[in-house]
Amino acid sequence: MNSSDYLNKIINVKIDRPIGSSHPKYPDLIYLVNYGYVPNTVSGDGEELDCYILGEYKPLKEYRGQCIAIIHRLDDNDDKLIIAPENKNYTNNEIKLLTDFQEKFYKIEIIRNSNYLEFNKNIPELSVTNLKNSLDFYKTAGFKLEYDRPENKFAFISLGKIQFMLQEITSDGKWDISPLTYPFGNGINFQLEIENLTEIYSNLKNSNYKILFDIEENWYRQGNKLLGNKEFLIQDPDGYLLRFFEDLGEKEI
């Protein structure tokens, strides 16, 4: 089996390096979580498939839990399973923090199921007049429909780490504290960092969406340095202001 075949499965793990123990070759490296292996398996390095056990804070000899993610080392042929109690999840950042005592020596990526969705701590919900029109616009801008509730005229969309909720206005909308008039969201703009600015700009312009200002380079002072953005501004179908930008780095004033 490939390591990815273990995702979401319940795994039996033998613990050979319990929490608080030292690495057998590097005694200064102390294990901050229980660490073990899946018996009768072979990993890319020829050894048994290794596992980090999260959510258990006493030394263990064995453990049975769910594989919620995989750490794939980009500079070493040795994947690590992330095992946690059933129905307990950890974000990618939490996994990185809990395994950093050892993984800091490698370049890693965290592999999850294709349907895994990590929610931001702050997710704006936009009231829209027509959900289909809004989805057409945001899909043109590169957003992905993560899930929807057609019966509620609701959609959750994302572009990289950018996330929005879209909710079509209803006559009894409990979130609407006063009548909405175009342009919605007057007084706020959403600054959205992306990597393919020119492509998104071209897709929107070619679809005849009105660009408020074309791509330009701007530098904003922060203390004694300048932070650079390559950016353009557009309104969505309800008038919400979106400022797409690419980071240009910084320079001294």
Number of strands: 14
Total separate domains: 2
- Helical region count? 3
How would you state the average pLDDT, rounded?
93
Distance between the termini: 56 Å
Q: Structural class given helices, strands, pairing?
A: mainly beta
CATH superfamily descriptor of the largest domain: 2,3-Dihydroxybiphenyl 1,2-Dioxygenase, domain 1
Rg (C-alpha, Å): 24 Å
Specify the biggest β-sheet: 5 strands, mixed, barrel
CATH secondary-structure class of the largest domain: Alpha Beta
CATH architecture annotation of the largest domain: Roll
Query: Low-confidence spans: pLDDT under 50, at least 5 residues?
Result: none
CATH fold type of the largest domain: 2,3-Dihydroxybiphenyl 1,2-Dioxygenase, domain 1
Q: Portion of residues in helices?
A: 10-25%
Strand arrangement in the largest pleated sheet: 1-2-3-5-4
What fraction strand? 35-45%
Give the SSE string.
EEEEEHEEHEEEEHEEE
Shape: elongated
